[in-house]
C-alpha cells in the first residue's frame, strides 16, 4: 500500500509474478496497476482541464503586443500545470517518468492479457473470460485471444453473461441501453439514455483532446530547431492526435461505427416524435443533417415534419449547440492540420513553392451550415424510399395512422430496425442487393464484404496457374446445396447435406483479371439462367439451400472462392468448428505446460 509505487512499477512486478507462476500475485499486481494508471490519468487530465478553465484563451483584440500576451497566457498555464501536478502527486505520489511503451501497453489493455491467463490458472473462468473479452475489445484482431475466448466458450461453466467489457465507457453503456430501448419501442427510455449518452460523449471527447496535450512527436524535429518550427511541430502533433479521437471514441463493443454520433440523432428524432416532442424531433433531424447533409431518408423526414406541422419555419431545424460547436471545431482543426500536411511536404527534397494562402490567417469563419438550402434531391416525397447507406435506423413511412401525430396526418413513421449486429456489419457490407435484381426469392449479393486492401493482401498469396482452356460446359453444374436434383424435383435425402439451410459464396479474386468466365448463375427449375453474378473480390452471394445455381466454364486462370454453409439445426450448430477448436486448445494447453517458463510470455492457454 505504498503510494509511491506507480503503475509502471506495479505492471513490472505483475509480469514478474506471472513469469514465476505466482498466479494470485499476478492478478493482484495487475489490478493495482490498472487502478493506479486510471488514477494517474484522471489527475493529469483534471489539472489540464482546470488550468484551461482558470486561464482561458486570451481574447483581447489585437494590438502590437497581442502575440506576447498569447504566449504569456501559455506560460501561465504551464505554471498552473506544474503547480497542479506537484500538488496532486507531490507528497502522496511522486511525479515520475513513464516509458512511453508502458503507456502504450496500458492504452492497449495489455495488463488484461496477463490477467486472463493468471485467472485461468487460478481456475477462475468468469474473470478469465472478462479479462479476455476486455482485452479483445481493444485488440479485436488478436487471434490468440480470440481462440482463447472460443475455447472458454466450449466449457460447461461458461455463460455469455461473462462477456463483460471492464473498461466500457459510460457513453458506450448508455448508447447500448438506448438502442436496446429502441428495439423495445420504449421511447421515453430511448430519449433518456441517448440524451445522456451524448452528454457523456462530449465529456469523453474533451478528455481525449486533453489527453493529446502530451502527444509530442520529438522525431519530427531536428537537433536545434527554430523556435517557430518547434512550436508549429508541437501544434501539429497535438492536432494529429485530436484528429484521431473520433476513431478511438466512436466504438461499440470494439467495432468502429462511422455514423456513431449522427445515429444518436436518428434514433432520437424518431423517439421524440413518438413521445410527442415535435420540436425536439425537428431539432434532431437538423442535427443529423449537419453530419450527413445528403442523407435522403432524413431529408424526406424533414419534409414530413414540415408537412405535419404545416410550417416551413426552418428555425425548427437548427441543430443543437453542442453538435454545432463540435463540428465547427473539427472543421477548423482539420483546416489547420491540412495546411501543415500540404505545405511542409517535401517532394523529392523540394518544398512546394509559395502560394498566396501561405500568408493568410486561418479562416476561422466556418461556412455556416446552410439549413435553409437542405432539400432532398428528389422533391417527390411519395417516391419509394431509398434507405441511406449511412443511416442505421431506417425510417420508412407507412400508411398506418398514428394517433399521436401532432397534426392529423395520413402517414406515420414505422421503424425498420437494424439490429446492433447489422449496425456493426455496415462497415464492410455497404449495400445488400436483393431478390429483385436476382429475379428470385432469398437471393442476395453484397459488395465490399472484403475491403480492397484485404483483397490485395489475399491476391499476393495466390499462385496463378495461367492456362488456356476452351471449355464451354459448366464448371459447376446446376445444383442445390441441400438436396439432390431428381426428375420430380429436388429431394432432401442423403448423401445431400440436408442440414444446410443457407449458402454464401465469397469471391476472393476478380473475373477478367485473374480468370475468364466463371460467372455464378441462378436458374429456374428447367435450368434456364435467370440471373448472373460476376465474381469480384469481396463480393458475396447468398441464397437458401434449395436455390438452384451453378458456375459457368472457367476458360482461363484460377478462380478463388470461399463457400460457406449455414444451418438452423442445433445439432449441427458450429459442430465441426467447435470440435476442431477444442482439439487445438488441448494441444496448445499441453505444449504450453511443457515449455512454460521457457518463454517469458506464453500467449497460449
Ligand atoms: O463457386 C461458386 O460460385 C459456387 C460454388 C457452389 O455452388 C458450391 O460449392 O456449392
Ligand atoms: Fe452450390
Can you summarize this structure?
With 605 residues, the protein is an alpha+beta fold. It has helices at residues 7-19, 23-54, 66-89, 100-107, 110-121, 125-138, 143-152, 170-183, 187-211, 227-243, 245-249, 260-274, 278-291, 296-308, 321-343, 420-425, 435-438, 452-461, 575-595, and strands at 251-252, 255-256, 394-398, 412-416, 432-433, 443-446, 476-479, 484-486, 489-491, 502-507, 515-517, 520-523, 529-533, 540-544, 549-551, 554-557, 561-566. The strands form six sheets. The protein has a five-stranded antiparallel β-sheet with strand order 5-6-14-10-17.
Question: What's the helix count?
Answer: 19
User: Strands of the biggest beta sheet: in what spatial order?
Assistant: 5-6-14-10-17
Radius of gyration: 29 Å
In terms of DSSP E residues, the strand content is: 5-15%
- Sketch the major β-sheet: 5 strands, antiparallel
Proportion of helical residues: 40-55%
Amino acid at each position: 500500500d505504498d503510494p509511491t509505487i506507480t503503475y509502471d512499477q506495479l505492471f513490472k512486478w505483475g509480469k514478474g509474478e506471472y513469469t514465476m507462476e505466482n498466479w494470485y500475485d499476478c492478478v493482484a499486481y495487475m489490478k493495482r496497476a490498472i487502478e493506479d494508471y486510471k488514477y494517474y490519468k484522471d489527475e493529469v487530465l483534471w489539472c489540464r482541464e482546470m488550468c484551461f478553465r482558470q486561464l482561458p484563451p486570451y481574447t483581447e483584440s489585437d494590438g502590437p503586443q497581442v502575440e506576447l500576451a498569447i504566449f504569456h497566457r501559455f506560460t501561465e498555464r504551464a505554471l498552473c500545470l506544474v503547480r497542479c501536478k506537484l500538488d496532486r502527486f507531490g507528497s502522496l505520489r511522486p511525479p515520475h517518468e513513464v516509458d512511453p511503451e508502458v503507456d502504450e501497453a496500458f492504452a492497449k489493455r495489455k495488463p488484461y492479457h496477463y490477467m486472463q491467463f493468471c485467472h485461468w490458472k487460478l481456475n477462475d473462468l468468469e474473470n478469465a473470460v472478462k479479462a479476455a473479452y476486455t482485452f479483445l475489445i481493444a485488440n479485436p484482431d488478436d487471434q490468440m485471444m480470440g481462440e482463447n475466448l472460443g475455447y472458454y466458450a466450449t466449457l460447461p461453466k461458461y455463460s455469455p453473461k461473462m462477456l463483460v467489457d471492464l473498461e466500457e465507457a459510460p457513453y458506450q453503456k448508455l448508447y447500448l441501453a438506448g438502442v436496446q430501448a429502441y428495439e423495445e419501442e420504449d421511447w421515453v427510455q430511448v430519449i433518456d439514455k441517448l440524451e445522456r449518452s451524448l452528454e457523456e460523449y462530449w465529456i469523453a471527447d474533451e478528455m481525449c483532446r486533453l489527453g493529446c496535450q502530451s502527444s509530442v512527436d520529438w522525431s519530427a524535429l531536428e537537433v536545434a530547431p527554430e523556435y517557430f518550427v518547434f512550436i508549429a511541430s508541437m501544434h501539429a502533433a497535438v492536432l494529429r492526435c485530436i484528429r484521431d479521437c473520433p476513431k478511438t471514441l466512436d466504438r461499440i463493443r470494439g467495432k468502429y461505427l462511422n455514423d456513431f454520433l449522427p445515429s444518436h440523432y436518428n434514433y432520437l428524432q424518431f423517439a421524440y416524435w413518438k413521445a410527442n416532442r415535435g420540436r425536439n424531433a425537428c431539432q434532431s433531424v437538423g442535427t443529423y443533417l449537419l453530419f450527413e447533409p445528403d442523407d435522403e431518408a432524413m431529408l424526406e423526414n424533414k419534409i414530413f415534419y414540415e408537412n405535419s406541422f404545416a410550417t416551413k419555419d426552418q428555425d425548427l431545424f437548427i441543430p443543437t449547440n453542442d453538435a454545432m460547436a463540435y463540428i465547427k471545431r473539427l472543421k477548423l482543426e482539420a483546416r489547420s492540420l491540412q495546411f501543415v500536411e500540404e505545405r511542409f511536404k517535401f517532394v523529392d527534397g523540394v518544398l512546394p513553392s509559395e502560394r498566396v494562402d501561405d500568408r493568410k490567417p486561418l479562416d476561422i469563419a466556418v461556412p455556416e451550415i446552410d439549413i435553409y438550402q437542405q432539400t432532398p434531391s428528389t422533391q417527390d416525397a411519395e417516391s419509394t424510399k431509398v434507405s441511406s447507406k449511412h443511416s442505421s435506423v431506417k425510417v420508412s413511412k407507412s400508411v398506418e395512422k398514428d394517433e399521436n401525430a401532432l397534426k392529423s396526418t395520413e402517414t406515420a413513421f414505422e421503424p425498420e430496425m437494424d439490429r446492433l449486429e447489422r449496425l456493426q456489419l455496415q462497415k464492410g457490407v455497404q449495400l445488400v442487393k436483393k431478390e429483385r435484381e436476382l429475379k428470385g426469392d432469398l437471393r442476395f449479393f453484397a459488395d465490399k464484404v472484403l475491403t480492397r486492401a484485404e483483397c490485395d493482401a489475399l491476391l499476393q498469396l495466390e499462385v496463378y496457374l495461367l492456362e488456356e482452356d476452351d471449355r464451354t460446359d459448366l464448371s459447376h453444374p446446376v445444383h442445390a446445396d441441400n438436396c439432390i436434383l431428381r426428375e420430380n424435383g429436388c429431394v432432401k435425402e442423403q448423401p445431400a447435406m440436408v442440414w444446410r439451410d443457407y449458402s454464401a459464396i465469397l469471391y476472393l479474386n476478380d473475373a477478367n483479371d485473374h480468370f475468364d468466365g466463371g460467372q455464378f448463375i441462378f436458374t429456374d427449375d428447367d435450368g434456364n439462367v435467370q440471373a448472373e453474378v460476376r465474381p469480384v473480390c469481396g463480393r458475396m452471394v447468398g441464397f437458401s439451400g434449395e436455390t438452384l445455381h451453378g458456375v459457368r466454364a472457367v476458360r482461363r486462370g484460377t478462380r478463388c472462392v470461399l463457400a460457406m454453409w449455414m444451418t438452423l439445426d442445433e445439432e449441427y450448430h458450429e459442430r465441426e468448428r467447435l470440435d476442431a477448436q477444442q482439439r487445438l486448445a488441448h494441444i496448445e494447453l499441453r505444449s504450453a505446460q511443457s515449455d512454460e517458463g521457457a518463454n517469458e510470455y506464453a500467449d497460449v492457454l
